[in-house]
Amino acid sequence: MTYFLLSSSLFLLRQVQTSYDATPRYASAANAFNLRITLQRCHHPYNPNLFDFYRTNFHDRPSKKNVPSLPKKQDDGADAIYTLKSRHQDEILASLRLTKSKNDNQYTFLRSLCVSRKHRRHGLASRLFKESLHHFDARHCYCFASPELVSFYQKLGFTPALEFIEEGQSIPKWMMNSYESMANRNSHKELKLYVKYSPSLITSTQNNLTEIVLLQHHTELSKKTATGWLLNDTQYADQFGEIPVNDFIENRLKLTLWKWGGSNDITYIENQISVLKDDKVYLLWTGGAAAGVAKGSGENDKPAETYIILDGTWQQAKKMYRKITPLWSLPKLSLQGMNVPPSTYVLRGDYSGWRKRFSNNDEGDGSDLLCTAEVAAAVIERCGDATCANVIRSRLDTFQSTFPPKFKGETDTKK
């Protein structure tokens, strides 16, 4: 049984406030240039500016003008070009390519990473890598790079493959064959194989885990107050340090990301929906009662295997729902009646009175308006894993406690 979660206006409006630059996790680059930076997934045919960017910045010798290979066919979700761009100047600051391995789609091949010459040493490569991997839903990653970049890749979590081998750990045979083939073709270069594994190497039980799919509007990636990233062990560890083994979420929950960037993504998302194997699909509705909306008890109902959250502002969620036609015919199931804890989310001020205006509870105080992390916690708790739900809520508390006070709802002075 599969559930789709269509977020209500209150649940999503919490993320509208984005007038400040970048996310707190990657603020250094934005502060350095005083720019508003956004992550963008490029689609074929590519803007000529992308080719100009690589011609100018990719090679150490400016005289070399050839451009690295780019995906030549329509984007199928398994091969993508990502860029960081300045919103004010429409300037490409950094770019890379990610490709799912045909041998094992849990592995992603990183290549063509490049940063503008005039904007280097400001953390842009790190930011691009982390945000694009989060969006691309990359579990494990590998690349071929020169030895002088070892410190850079180690900061990103990569380890030379030789170290894994020396410690008695195995590297997939197909990956070693690919590396040897590349090394033979580029014998004049000293390139090494680097591998980045997710915090847990446990993959055999993934098919038995509850799955949450975040169908994200592309603007979520640049919002400071977004909370979906708290479900990703790698991103959380990058921000707050090493995670205790018992707190690994990916051992207990399968997280998948789909991105909505416009009409170019419709076919990909429709294909993802069509391959779901369950006989029944539900659209889980967080708003009040409506025609055809059933209420879940959270006790007698059989837990679902997959939940999909439309993640964006209310207007963005409605647009995604309107454009992705397979969602239309899905029966709806309400979160009401599931004994969900009240929201503790405070990162969006109530200066417009939206909590009272959109709240569906009797008090009208907005305590029923959950952020992405809180909805995920409610879903996984409904499936019987209260421990994982509490880990998610604890991460939200940690994130909010370290957030700049001036952006918290209780001190927001915006009129």
Report on the structure:
The chain has 415 residues and is an alpha/beta fold. Helices cover 29% and strands 20% of the residues. The protein has 13 helices and 14 strands. The chain has helices at 9-13, 27-33, 48-57, 124-136, 150-155, 161-166, 173-185, 233-240, 266-274, 314-323, 354-358, 372-382, 386-401, and strands spanning 2-6, 37-42, 79-86, 91-100, 107-115, 140-145, 159-160, 192-196, 210-217, 253-260, 281-285, 293-295, 306-311, 332-334. The strands form two sheets. Strands 10-9-13-1-11-14-12 form a seven-stranded parallel beta sheet. Helix 12 (372-382) packs antiparallel against helix 13 (386-401). The protein is globular, with a radius of gyration of 22 Å. It starts with a strand and ends in a 14-residue tail after the last helix. The model is unreliable at 6-35, 200-206, 288-303 and 405-415 (pLDDT under 50).
Give a short overview.
This protein is α/β, with parallel strands linked by helices and 415 residues long. Helices cover 29% and strands 20% of the residues.
